[in-house]
Amino acid sequence: MPKVVHFEIPADNPERANKFYADTFGWEISKMPGPEDYWMLKTGPQDDPGIGGGLMKRQDPSVLQL
After folding, report:
1. Is residue 46 in a domain?
2. CATH code, domain with 32
3. For labeling, which of 5, 31, 44, 47 is most exposed (least CB within 10 Å)?
4. Long-range CB contacts (< 8 A, 24+ apart) of 20-27?
């Protein structure tokens, strides 16, 4: 079965969400260069099992907010 290799989190306030995930889980977060607000989420060491993700400003208000 294929494994999940990336996830994305839409957020109304990306800066607040980034702080929450960094403080709560210790994730390393870095803004991607370019005009779009997109941050890469490093959830653990590269050689550890797990996945990384991304966080961006919510585009569609009907998307579930956690």
Report:
1. yes
2. 3.30.720.120
3. 47
4. 21/55
Domain, as residue range, for 48: 6-57
The DSSP annotation for 6-19 comes to EEEEEESSHHHHHH
Residues 50 and 45: their CA atoms lie apart, in Å, by 9
Predicted TM-score of the model (pTM): 0.77
Residue 65 pLDDT class (50, 70, 90 cuts): low
Domain-located, residue 52: yes
Which residues face 56 on adjacent strands? 10, 38
Model confidence pLDDT, tens digit, residues 5-39: 889 999 999 999 999 999 999 999 999 999 888 99
